[in-house]
Design a protein that fits this description.
248 residues; alpha/beta; Rossmann fold; five-stranded mixed beta barrel
């Protein structure tokens, strides 16, 4: 087959599993947890390495930030033969029990973004695959991590969350944020809804694990609010989850 236009490669990689961080700078670090890690390709925001787990080829590829580039990544990886996707990302906590340094396994996403709306109507839910979700939870437990599983908010605008009052749509942003909090939303990030919806439409499996950087709601409530930029817990859990899935 021809090389895919955006990711820059064809189906010669042989990987059924792809681990998808947003940041290209995290790809090599994640790949270092695999056997025989090696650089494969770089094009646009998509940096790709390959390795092995239990004798099976596993890909690590960055998606960049936000839904559009994530959707393109999943579409083109699926064309090259990938059938299982695990996003590793960062998030801001929302529910008060969610603290910096914890991991969140997203079971579903609030579709407060635009990309998934060009696939299916908004009434259709963005849900993670059960097998991959269970593997991520099993991995987090096995590694002794502090973990949470539940719904996350997926948005398009980082500063719409962090500076909502200066936006002309502040009335909508603030009211919806309060609604998500009351409904028990765990955390906020920017890629999960596109990942889940596109994978669902294609017939692929997708899951998502997130490292919590901090929690602005804990700060508002006067509670301790540690800040943690170390994504290693989520990385280790994702690697272990792929190992569980490959050996299942």
């Amino acid at each position: 087959m021809e090389k895919q236009y955006h990711v820059g490669f064809d189906d010669s990689h042989g990987a059924l599993y792809a681990i998808l961080p947003g940041d290209p700078g995290r790809v090599e670090k994640i790949a270092s947890y695999l056997d025989n890690p090696r650089f494969f390709c770089q094009n646009r925001e998509y940096t790709t390495w390959l390795g092995e787990l239990s004798g099976k080829t596993v890909m690590v590829m960055s998606t960049g930030m936000g839904g559009p580039s994530t959707a393109i990544a999943v579409e083109e990886l699926f064309k090259t033969g990938v059938r299982n996707f695990i996003r590793i990302g960062t998030c801001g906590g929302m529910a008060l029990p969610v603290t910096g340094g914890d991991v969140v396994v997203a079971t579903g996403a609030i579709r407060q973004e635009g990309t998934s709306r060009e696939y299916v109507p908004i009434e259709f839910p963005a849900i993670a695959n059960l097998d991959i979700t269970n593997a991520l939870v099993e991995a987090a437990k096995k590694l002794g991590q502090t973990w949470h599983a539940g719904i996350v908010q997926c948005k398009d605008s980082f500063y719409g969350q962090h500076s909502p009052n200066r936006m002309p749509t502040s009335y909508e942003l603030n009211n919806k944020w309060e609604a998500w909090l009351k409904a028990g939303c765990l955390a906020s990030e920017m890629e999960s809804a596109s990942l889940f919806i596109v994978s669902q439409i294609l017939g692929a499996r997708a899951g998502c694990i997130l490292n919590v950087i901090w929690n602005q709601e804990r700060e508002k409530a006067g509670k301790s609010n540690p800040v943690c930029h170390d994504a290693e817990p989520a990385i280790k859990a994702a690697i272990e989850a792929v190992r569980i899935l490959v050996n299942d």
